[in-house]
Every structure is written in C-alpha cells, then in structure tokens.
Design the sequence.
C-alpha cells in the first residue's frame, strides 16, 4: 500500500497520473491530501529579524545566521518583548523553540561572550546606545558575570573622561602647550577621552594580546593616541594603577618632573626599573 501511495503521489505531482480504473482508493486519498511541491526558502534573502523569528530552525537557517553581523542580532533582541525562560517555550517535538536558544546553539558560549564583550566595550567607550534588554534576557540563560566589570570600569574611570570642544586655532594653542602632536586639517575639533581597563580579563600569565577592541571606521573622525590625554594600566607589585602616557614616559626617561608622582606610587628612580 505504501509503495502504491508513493508511486501515485509522484505521478500526480508530475501531472501524468493515469488511473488504471475509473476510481481507486489510493487516488481519492492522495487528492484529499492536496499534495503540493514545497518551495525552497532562500535564507540569504531573509533579514536577520526574519531568521530569528522563524519557527523552522533548520540547519540552513543556522548556517546563514552565523554569517550575520552581531549588531543586527542585538538590534532584534532589543526590539522584541523580553523573552521568558526556556521552559516556557518548550515543545516535545523540537529542540529549539525560541530565538535566544537558537542564538546559544549557533554560537558557543565563549564565542558569544567575546562578541558581546566587543560590542559592549564599543558602546561604553563611544557612549552608544547600549543593549540592556538583550543582556538581561541572555543572563537568564548563560553566566555573564565576567561582563559586569565593564560597567564597573565605566563608573570608576568616569573621573578621567573629558570632552573638549573649540575652534582649531584655540585647540592647537592649547594642545601645543600640552606637547601633543596634531593634524591641522579641520576647522573645528572635539577631543574625546575614554578609558576601558583590562586586569579582569587576564592574570599575570596572560600571553594573549588585548586586541578584541577595535575602533569603528568613521569617515568624519580621526583617531589618535594623545600622550597627555591617554592612560595605561601598569602593575606595581600586586597593585594595578592607572597613569598617563606622559607620566609613564617620564618614568622611562627618569624625568625629574614626574619623580614625585612615582615616589608616591612606591617607585624610586634610583632602583632598576624592569618592564615585562
């Protein structure tokens, strides 16, 4: 019976079905099913939002979602109503029942945290719109404690953040006094300073470069490290302290102007300075 059904189904789909008798039960059964050819979905043409909101989370959809920019994925979760826990969406016939579970399936937890860390750092540094709703939903599914430090850094280093605006000549005069090198190619300029620290990301044995944070490409802005406005973190014994590039340069050159600063931090110009 199954063989006959499959054979006659194929004939009906091809349009060349010729019943051997005026009526067959198989033919009546197939006609009642309204058999149609399924259209193949081109997932490349679907938006990221459509992919995540789809109910048919198949392999092709997952592969396509891996290629999508993470910013668009964040945007989707920021625009929908907060999701409930995974059990709320449970269905006995499916392993993946909601977009957040899908995202965790697409990316390993370590990979997912790295992507979020990159976007979060950029949002904090450039004061972009954050993604609190997405974070709130995701922390119900995975451990995100290591990302909390970014918010702590945001508050702690706020005292170092400055924004200076002005016309070019006034700016050049000001920066000249500070000994900064500038490019004279704009009529007006904004100087923005941001600091994000990293001692929480790796310990003293860390060998990996702290390179996940990249400046965004912005045609109307020039980015540069300015000695008098840039800071770095150094470890003195078991302490981690923040100093300006200028102060650090003074230490390397043993500039008398900064000797008091380093003495207060417990570093003497008379001792041998080792830099790892």
Sequence:
């Amino acid at each position: 019976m199954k063989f006959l059904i499959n054979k006659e189904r194929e004939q009906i789909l091809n349009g060349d079905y010729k019943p051997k008798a005026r009526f067959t039960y198989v033919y009546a059964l197939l006609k009642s099913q309204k058999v149609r050819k399924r259209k193949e979905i081109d997932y490349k043409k679907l938006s990221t939002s459509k992919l995540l909101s789809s109910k048919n989370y198949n392999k092709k959809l997952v592969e396509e979602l891996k290629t999508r920019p993470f910013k668009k994925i964040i945007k989707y979760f920021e625009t929908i109503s907060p999701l409930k826990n995974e059990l709320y969406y449970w269905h006995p016939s499916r392993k993946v029942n909601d977009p957040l579970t899908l995202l965790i399936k697409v990316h390993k937890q370590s990979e997912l945290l790295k992507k979020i860390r990159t976007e979060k750092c950029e949002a904090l540094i450039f004061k972009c719109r954050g993604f609190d709703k997405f974070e709130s939903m995701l922390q119900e599914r995975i451990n995100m404690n290591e990302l909390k430090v970014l918010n702590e850094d945001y508050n702690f280093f706020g005292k170092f953040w400055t924004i200076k605006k002005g016309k070019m000549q006034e700016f050049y005069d000001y920066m000249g006094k500070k000994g900064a090198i500038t490019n004279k190619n704009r009529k007006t300029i904004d100087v923005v300073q941001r600091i994000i620290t990293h001692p929480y990301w790796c310990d003293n044995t860390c060998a990996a470069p702290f390179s996940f944070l990249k400046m965004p490409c912005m045609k109307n802005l020039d980015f540069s490290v300015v000695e008098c406005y840039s800071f770095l973190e150094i470890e003195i014994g078991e302490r981690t302290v923040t100093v300006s590039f200028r102060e650090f340069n003074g230490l390397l050159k043993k500039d008398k102007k900064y000797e008091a600063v380093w003495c207060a931090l417990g570093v003497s110009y008379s001792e041998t300075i080792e830099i790892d």
Notes: The two ends are 78 Å apart (CA to CA). Residues 160-264 form one domain. Residues 196-215 have pLDDT under 50 and may be disordered. The CA atoms of residues 177 and 269 lie 26 Å apart.
